Request: fold
Amino acid sequence: IADEPEVISRKIKKAVADKEGLENLYGLSEFFIKDFDRGNYKENNAKLKEDLAKAIFDHFADFRKERRRWLKNEKEVLKILEKGAKKARKVAKKKMTEVRKKVGLV
Reply:
């Protein structure tokens, strides 16, 4: 998801293009490539892989942008994580009290 275009392209290009591998590539293409038509790629696996890599890169572009933003704001991320941990501890404490009562430890 966070890979840069060159990395995505390299990974897709290394995908095996035997019958099973092509089915996997077609499945991914149906999800990522708008109006995907297998017929357009029957004899051109290189074009399929190229278009799929670009579509995957484009699909996750916003995620990568947000990820970079969050990675630059470590203090804010730690603050959010601590707030979430505090909430989780409160819920867990209540649940563990219930469990202890049910199993006779309290």
